[in-house]
Amino acid sequence: MKVSNRIAGLTGGGSDGWDVFYKARAMMADGVDVTELTIGEHDIRTDPSILDAMDRSARAGHTGYASVPGTPALRDAIAARVEARTGVKTTRDNVLITPGGQSALFTAHHAVCDEGDIALYCDPFYTTYPGTIRGVGAQPRAVPCRPEAAFQPRFADIAAKRDYAVSILVNTPNNPTGVVYDEQTVEGIARACIEYDMWCISDEVYDTQVWSGTHLSPRALPGMAERTLVVGSMSKSHAMTGSRVGWIVGPQEVIAHAINLATHITYGVPGYIQDAALFALTAGPELEDRVGAPFAKRRDLAHEILAGQNAVRLVPNAGAMYLMLDVRDTGLSGEAFALALLHQERIAVMPGESFGEAAAGHVRVAMTVEDARFEDALRRIVAFAGTKSA
Ligand code: PMP
What we know:
The chain is of the alpha/beta class and 390 residues long. It has 14 helices and 13 strands.
């Protein structure tokens, strides 16, 4: 039987650059001791106090269907959080709770793209972006960001690719680069959205993980609240990746439609998960700080190790749990570098090419193993690159 063209074409075909990842997994399954720096997931688990809140809620009976838009209390908490970050009046009517940020990305594109519409996304990109856009029947179009501009999507980069696009998907702090968009970038995004009448879908799932500079949401800029859909999640901020809870914040009318969509796809997020998220969000900054602290520390370690060498160059890294290393001086592609590193040093990193063409000749290092192992791996990556450099 034939499946739909839409679902068969979702991933776009071609090599997805995950070769290194699968090879590393196969080596580990064979008992090889691989230092695994490919995956964007904390090396700590959800805090026990959050699990206790989840347990209390479930035992109190919150195991039935929850309200589809989200519990009023959690929607209020997200509204307050996003209002504090953007300075834009936000109420629960601007919020839909979703099963994670990924579902929010899909819902946001569904809400603003018609069949065949062009939807922009910035390259390098988080791997699901083009498939998410194809999944709603739209056409993904990459906006290449230049390594010379530290992968910041500037106005001119967007203008060059706009082609009557209906939306642009941006991501700060960024996966895979670890870059936090500066003011010039966010202003350029806002200018492009307003001049070209585009929606801005702003993926801010790493907004609590900023190690230098400040996070600026495009929604905060004049004229942007009515055309911005902010995507957020508890996954990264509270090490709750498996709980699947996130949100979209946007204009009330769009959220009303998105709630209709949720009724037909997810029928909401479990009440006990939402209660746990509410507990986590209202527990004060200490929980969030504890989740982010290991990455901040490893980032400092990385800056120390990478100073005073030129075998690899660090893309200016200010947030999230990743480092992007420019390995072009070795003469190798990111993929060739990552494969050789895996075989010689038993260290697994992601080739830049798996995140788009703009990151060719780079590798992404996830700071997601304990400090001593991370430090040792990074020193060996630098030494390995040194042996390859011309
Ligand atoms: N956006 C970005 C940039 C991500 O890195 C991820 C997860 N790796 C997500 C969205 C989706 O996260 P989740 O669905 O767990 O909230």
